[in-house]
Structure formats: structure tokens, C-alpha cells
Amino acid sequence: MARIAVIGAGMGAMAAAARLAVAGHRVAVYERGRTHGGSVGRLARDGFVFDTGPGLLHLPAVYRDLFIKTGKESLESCVELSQVDPASRHVFPDGTDLRLPNASRAGVVRALDEAFGAGSGERWGDLVNRAREAWDATRRPLLEEPLRTDRQALEHDPYPAVARRGWLRLGRGAQPGTLARIASRELRDAGPVALLESYALAYGLDPRTAPASATVLPYLEQTFGSWYALGGMRALADALYERCRARKVEFSFGAEVAAIVEKDGRAAGLTLADGTPVAADAVVCGVDPAVLPRLLGGARAWQDGDVQPPDGGSASGASGRLVVLLALRGARPGDTAHRTVVHAADRGAELASVFGDGSGEGAGAACRSRTVTVLRPDDPGTRPDGEHEAVTLTATVAAHGPVDWSDPDIAGREADRMVAAAEAAIPGLRDRVLWREVRTPYDTAADTGAEGGAVPAPALAGAGGRHLRPANLSRIPGLYLAGGGAHPGGGLAHAGMSGAMVAGLIVEGADWRGSQ
């Protein structure tokens, strides 16, 4: 039985901890904050309850597998999950109103034809079919296996390139270009183009630079559905925490890690901020990998050729989330969509304000028009009674640094604009507000320790490997990486996958290549 020290109590870290405990190891988790869950937080006030992190789950099979492998109770016996239908509603600047059914590609095709004209659905369907080829080509090496030293296959974009005319496949080795390029070429019309690019933006990706393989994001939603946990997505974090405790994982909160201890060339434990030593046979870093140089006392955490945190851990060019939590008077109408995306009037200006000129330069510029996601769950557990409603607004913004998100005036002005934009989804919204709370990337940084409050995007194949994340097996023996900042990237499902990979590497050894 090995002693495993885990840094952080986020979803990836807890997923690894539960699996390792079941394998017979003694696992102890050290979390700098007061609670578990990482970015999957909750705010409760006056009978209103809000998720402060992810509001929906995609690929629930990741957590179903985790709960099956770590105990007798299934995921559904611990968390009440339901599919969201429609999966999303989209309101465009010209007034077009589109509702996309959940997990129904045929229904999506019909909806697009009705909204944008005949042929729009077929073109979208063809694109999603090509995205399926990209998914099939990279699902295992990108999402089910630890990142290999030989990453050539993942540096190549798996999206099948097509010629501009005749839809003929291009020559072997040809690259399809960026997501924005294939959106313009294959979807043609402004509405479907904005729809596709909004998927990338929601995950914190710039469609102007993201590889065409980012088409797997709408493919995943349309194929596997969008799911909500009754009581809010925090219920999933609570269930995983309780599973860890049932497997005898030890948790220490308010326990900031000051250093990773090395002995004889391998990770041998931790030193906490109060000086407490923690001996361990292996260390799992479940927080932002950008902190590793500091925790290692300035030692090189990476070698030439390694995949490193984006921009060396800098917030420049990274994106975060601006979240406005609204307590509303008045009942939620019965035909309300759970998720509505209100598209920006000037997407070019929005992208420039978040990501800069495409290379990260100039991010943080003022923007009067943002794409706002409106979440309105039909969940009695989120409101004091049937005559009130809890609503969450989210926008992708530049991380803290390019914008001083600690300035309440800046945060307040941006929140005002988001509320005004959301009136396209909720007419009369401003008159219904009892109170609101605004959470910025500065708050995210304070809560999770993520550099600039940046929210990691999922790993993608293509673009020469620039959208990959650091490997789960570090260059330092005995040190492993889990969570959204490590392979295979950010998102609830991806964090769970990273925990499975770390557990597999520790239990089976460095040559482990994923579950068969």
C-alpha cells in the first residue's frame, strides 16, 4: 500500500483519489480552500442556489464509470441526472430564434433549415459527420490514454479536409485550417457560422486559431446529450467527495502546499505552508500545472519538447468567465429553455476583446457586445418558491491581468451589459431583479489558484499540438498531474478522465496505455 499525497480537491484530483483508494493505496488530499470541488462551486443566499462553475455535464459516461469502479452505488443512485431538452436555444442579433433538440442530429437538421433556410441543416449535418471522423480518429489517444512522448498523430488535425468546390477530399496530409475557416467555407451563412463558433467560445477557445477538430465539441453535445444534476452541478462534486470519504480518502482543508519534496531524484512528499511535512510515495498535482516551478523550488518542471501550460502559465491570451447570478421575482414560465445563448452583435470585436488580435496581443480591450449564456434550470431546489427564479448569466472574457477584474466598477459595467443582452432571452429581466452577485476571473483565481482565473479548455488535436495539455506522467518520477490543466484538458468530463489516467499510471506503471 503506497502513500499518495494529492494537491487540491478539484474534480480531477478527487477522481484520481477515489480510484487509487479502491486500489488499496492510502490517499490524503490537501486543499488550500475551505471546500472540495475546485471550480464546481455553489452560492446559496436567501433561498436561491446557484452553480458558480459548470452548469451542465456532457459525456456522463465518464462519471458513471468512476462510480461503478469505486463502489456499489451507481452515479444515478447518488445524483439525479436529467437530459436537458431542448439542448439549447440560440437568439441571434437579427432576431432569429433557434431551438436545438437534445441528442437528435435529425432534429437539429430540421431546426436549422427552419431557422436559416433549406440546405442549412444538410450542410451542418455534413460538418458534424466529418467531426465524427475526427472524434473516431482521436478519441482513444486524446481522451482515453496518457499523453505519449510521440505526439505526432495528435499534432495533425484529424478533421477531414475538403476542397472549396465539389466537396472533394484534399490530398493526404492536407490540413483543413482553423475552425473559423471551415465554418465560413462549409456552412456559408452567417447564422450557422456564428452557431459553430459559439461552441468554441463557450469552451474558452478562439475560433480564429482553434483547429478544425474543435468541431468535435458540437458533435459531442449532439451525440451524447446535455445533462443537469438536480440541485445544481455542485451535487456531482458532493457525490464524488462522499465517494472518496467512503473509500477512506483523508481530506485536509485550509492546507496550502508550499513545496513538493524531492528525494533521490523523485517526488517524496509535500511541505505545507505552516511547515508540516507530508511523506509520500507519490504526489498527484491536481491544481494548475503553472504552479509547479514554484512548488519545485525553481527546478525545471518541463524539458524541451514537453507540452507545457499555455503561454508558460501566463494569463496573456487566456480566457476566463464572467458570471452574473440573478435572484428574480416572478415564476419561471413552463416553456422556458434551460440554456439560451444570446449571440453578440459584433463577434469580431468580442473575439478581439477576449483573445486579442489572434496571437494574444491586445486582449482585454473594452467590448460592448458579448455572447451571453443564460441558464434557467427547472429545479425547485434552486429557488425559495414557485414565485421566484434563479438565473445564471455567463460570458467568456479575458483573464485577470489583461483586465483588472478586481475593480468593481469594471465588473459592474460588464455585468450591466450582460443583463441588458440577456433581455433578448428574458424580456423585462431588469425589472425582475431582486439582487445579483458578480463573479469575475479575479474571484476564480482567488478560489482555485488558477493563473489569472483562466478556465482551461479541453485538449484538441491539430495546430501542431498547441492545444494539448501537459502529460499526466511528469518528468519527475513519482509526480503526476490531474485536473483541467493537465491532459486531456478542461471540462467536467475531461477532468474525470485525467483522474482515471493518473490512477492507471500509478497502479499499472508508466507503460500503462489506458483501459482496454
Quickly describe the structure:
The chain has 516 residues and is an alpha/beta fold. 33% of the residues lie in helices and 19% in strands. It contains 16 helices and 19 strands.
Give a structural overview.
The protein is 33% helix and 19% strand. With 516 residues, it is of the alpha/beta class. Strands 7-6-15-16-17-14-18 form a seven-stranded mixed β-sheet, sandwiched between helices. It is globular and about 65 Å long.
What order do the helices and strands come in, and which of them pair?
Elements: E1 3-7, H1 11-22, E2 26-31, E3 42-45, E4 48-51, H2 61-70, H3 75-78, E5 81-83, E6 88-91, E7 97-100, H4 105-116, H5 120-144, H6 152-155, H7 179-187, H8 190-202, H9 216-224, E8 227-229, H10 234-246, E9 250-253, E10 257-263, E11 266-272, E12 277-279, E13 282-285, H11 292-295, E14 319-329, E15 339-342, H12 347-355, E16 372-375, E17 388-398, H13 408-422, H14 429-432, E18 433-439, H15 441-448, E19 479-481, H16 492-508
Parallel strand pairs: 1-2, 1-13, 2-9, 6-15, 13-19
Antiparallel strand pairs: 3-4, 5-8, 6-7, 10-11, 11-12, 14-17, 14-18, 15-16, 16-17
Helix pairs in contact: 1-10, 1-16, 2-16, 4-5, 7-8
